[in-house]
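Table S2 (text version). Query chain:
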Amino acid sequence: MIGVQEKNYKSYCFNSLNYSVIFIYLLFVIFPIIWIVLLSLKTEVQAFANPPLFIFKPNLMNYYNLFVEENFGKYLFNSIFIASLSSIVCLLIGAPTAFALSRNQNKTNQGILIWVLISRMAPAMTYVIPFFVVFSYFKMIDTYFGLILAYSVLNLPLVIWLMRSFFLELPSETLEAAKIDGASTFQIFRKIAIPLASPGIVSTGIITFVVAWNEFIFALVLTRRHAVTAQIGIGNLQKFEGTEWGQMAAGAIVLILPAMIIAFFISKYFVQGLTSGATKG
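Corresponding structure-token output:
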């Protein structure tokens, strides 16, 4: 009886320690978001009050000024359009490539995979100047096509490696049976591999969209006015007259929402996709 009580006490202490660590971690993660939300609802006087105000009358003027005076709606549309199309392009190219690399485990494919991995490991800054020079020559600076192309090149290695791990999880017996029945490689890919790997495709699409959505360096260097994204639009709130902290906070909240909404509605596929591709590779 004493042994059982001692075991229960140790289990209680261990669980209490775990929950305490989780609570502290969540506090560090959530508190900045709460602070930004409060800042976005304050006037300039309230924002610089000392001590900080946690009880105040909220207003939405920062959001109004952000979209009406700063034309943030156009920047937001640019971000959604560019991130979505670049994600689609990456999936259209990366999924067939990953399927081909997962089916044939030879030295040539291994070399291709290593090259793809090395290209993804290089910092984004190493690509900015070459992209700028080439895009300037072909007059692709400040265009949707140019930024979509840059994001696709940046994220394609990530898509290939993620999708390859999902395709490796597919039962080889099913694929071989389809091949014996006379199905071509493209038919196997389209009718069997794609449906079976759909959770992985969804999760890869989410990750690719979020990476493109949060990208800053390429958008800063390769855009001027027409194709400016929301991330650059927030940076433009740092003006010579001063920084619009309330509007910057409002913009940050707006930028958080799309990724949260997407993740909320397809979280089941996202989690299923991540777990299904986590055991092989």
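Notes on Table S2: Residues 277-281 have pLDDT under 50 and may be disordered. The radius of gyration is 24 Å.
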